[in-house]
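Posting this for the archive.
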Amino acid sequence: MRLNVSALVGFASLMVLVGCAETSVQPMSKDTFKVQTHAAPACGPTGARNLAFKAAAIEVIRKGGDKFIIANDSSGSGLQGDFFSGFNQNFNQGMVVRLIPEGSREASNALSAREVLGANWQEIVSKGVPNTCG
């Protein structure tokens, strides 16, 4: 059996791209920011949403808080590629996040960033937002 190296390299490159995601955070005010995640086809819409939510929790902690609400949420998808190499669907998720002060009236209904991230939240925050959905 003959090994096709270029096919293997192409397949490996595709597998690397399949799990890729990119997340950005944009400040909107002192207590509000937007998280935007663009994810590869393998992530699907759920993977993009979960990654954006995790990024929101990480950013809340980095800003010195714990309580937050999602003030706005948007999702979508698009095609990437061309007729020669083919098209792939990618997914995006946007969230507008508002920090909620401890002890405020809204705090009892707000989400806890530490609870969202789980028991090892400190490790997750130190590593930052992953670039994969897995």
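Helices lie at 5-18, 44-62, 113-117, 121-127. Strands lie at 21-29, 32-39, 67-82, 86-100, 111-112.
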